[in-house]
TrEMBL record:
Residues 149-457 form the FAD/NAD(P)-binding domain. SUPFAM superfamilies: alpha-helical ferredoxin (SSF46548), Nucleotide-binding domain (SSF51971). It comes from Sphingomonas corticis. This is NAD(P)-dependent oxidoreductase. Residues 24-134 form the Dihydroprymidine dehydrogenase domain. The keyword Metal-binding applies. The keyword Oxidoreductase applies. PANTHER family: GLUTAMATE SYNTHASE [NADPH] SMALL CHAIN, GLUTAMATE SYNTHASE [NADPH] SMALL CHAIN-RELATED.
Length: 480
């Protein structure tokens, strides 16, 4: 039995981060994984509390105290199997989940002042060890059911649902517009947070399990939604949300003002060794430039840290609220500051200065926090007469994402949407307004966390399985 409850005399210790100067020169992850003794020691700090708030606040409700205890006892294979039982991508969640807002932020011993158990780092350690030791088993499809499912979108929600449905014995086809599966895991999140081989080995496992991937496939161009419905017994829409939110200021159309996802995708393609003309000609390359990133979420943090690694002359992040009210991870802010990013709090762009059709500076209004808005956060308002000019030959808009107009793009006007443009689904079945067409992930809930997309993929796979079984039984009765 492990020696647990050591949070009083055993200090919290995360895996050591590489020196900021060294890590800012490459796209490798910034910290190595634990060595086994360190992982066991840190797992042994868990208090094994009666009400595990870490699990309660995890969207997947992972069995966190249980696999921490197994890790502390050195029973790593059992720890992996338990971790894997609730998550299709535990090592990915261990890397990119904002644990400071979820499991670790709600750890009981965090409230005592002793520092939370390092749950994310232990989760990463467990599954990385499983891959290294060959414990990660192949995806074995269930007995063939004679029914097929089409999944539109190869991000975390789509991949999760595809895995569970294949395990139930369905023929599963995944359609994605990109040339590699993974969605934002592949092209949106930089390698210093999530190295790409970690994603690709998950995709390869699904391919080896018989899931068919149609990459470079765009619904509306390569097939209509109606044609896909005719091809499969059920469809899942898991496209995510990719439409960049606009910023309505003068100079917005100038050269050098770019969307965050375009910028991050170009950088990630370079990491794969792809030819990226927009990177080579400097359009999506921050090298030698004064960069201003507008936004305060995790995408903005990805952009500023990418710009540092590309050799920008300066990198500033402009955010209209203060540090305490930003939506992004505080850990990511700290990492960015260590790497040389300057944060300009309580500031919002008034206009972009333009010369010869290219941005040269950002005129920013100073802001102050007024009364709380409907969300409970204090609303930013302009502080009259207070402005500042920031030099900029690249401005990256990282203001979040909205849903694309899928009914229009797919020529499917009967596909119901909400007033935000996300797909409207039945809350129990997760079916859209079209019979046999389900939806999950960000295209339903709006831009959110990867861990929520995995949860949604798991949930929709269960409801689709139930619906497909009923459809098969009905077909048998008609045949009889």
């Amino acid at each position: 039995m492990a020696d647990m409850l050591k949070f009083v005399d055993r200090s919290q210790s995360y895996p050591a981060k590489r020196d900021a100067t060294a890590r800012a020169a490459d796209f490798r992850e910034i910290a190595e994984r634990y060595a086994p003794p360190a992982a066991e020691d840190q797992a042994g700090r868990c208090s094994q509390c009666g009400v595990p708030y870490c699990s309660v606040h995890c969207p997947l409700h992972n069995h966190i105290p249980d696999w921490l205890r197994l890790t502390a006892e050195g029973r790593l294979r059992e720890a992996y199997e338990l971790s894997n039982s609730t998550s299709t991508m535990p090592e990915i969640c261990g890397r990119i989940c904002p644990q400071d807002r979820l499991c670790e932020g709600n750890c009981v011993i965090e409230f005592t002042g002793h520092g939370a158990v390092t749950i994310g780092s232990v989760e990463k350690f467990i599954t990385d060890t499983a891959w290294a030791e060959g414990w990660v088993e192949p995806l074995v499809p269930g007995p063939a059911r004679g029914q097929s499912v089409g999944v539109i979108g190869a991000g975390p929600a789509g991949l999760t649902a595809a895995e569970y449905l294949r395990g139930h014995g369905y023929d599963v086809h995944v359609y994605d517009r990109h040339d590699r599966a993974g969605g934002l895991l592949t092209y949106g999140i930089p390698g210093f947070k999530l190295e790409k081989p970690v994603v690709m080995r998950r995709v390869d496992r699904l391919k080896e399990g018989g899931i068919v991937f149609h990459e470079g496939f765009e619904v509306g161009r390569d097939a209509t939604l109606a044609e896909l419905r005719a091809r499969h017994d059920a469809l899942l829409v898991a496209t995510g949300v990719y439409k960049a939110r606009a910023i309505d200021v003068a100079g917005n159309e100038a050269g050098g003002v770019i969307a965050a996802l375009d910028y991050l995708t170009a950088s990630n393609r370079k990491s794969f060794g792809d030819a990226v003309p927009e990177f080579e000609d400097g359009s999506l390359n921050a090298a030698g430039k004064h960069v201003v990133v507008i936004g305060g979420g995790d995408t903005a943090m990805d952009c500023v840290r990418t710009a540092v690694r590309q050799g920008a002359a300066s990198v500033r992040c402009l955010y209209r609220r203060d540090r305490a009210n930003m939506p992004g991870s505080q850990r990511e802010v700290a990492n960015a500051e260590e790497e040389g990013v300057e944060f300009v709090w309580l500031a919002a762009p008034e206009r972009f200065a333009v010369d010869a059709d290219r941005v040269t500076a950002v005129r920013a209004n100073r802001m102050r926090l007024g009364r709380a808005d409907a969300s409970g956060r204090r609303a930013p308002e302009v502080d009259p007469g207070a402005t500042q000019d920031l030099p900029a030959d690249m401005v990256i808009k990282a203001l979040g994402f909205d849903a694309e107009e899928l009914p229009h793009l797919w020529n499917a006007p009967e596909l119901g949407v909400t007033r935000w443009g996300t797909l409207l689904v039945d809350p129990k079945s997760l079916m859209t307004s079209l019979d046999g067409v389900f939806a999950a992930g960000d295209i339903v809930r709006g831009a959110s966390l990867v861990v929520w997309a995995i949860r949604d993929g798991r949930d929709v796979a269960a409801t689709m399985h139930k619906w497909l079984k009923a459809k098969a039984r009905a077909g048998e009765k008609v045949a009889a």
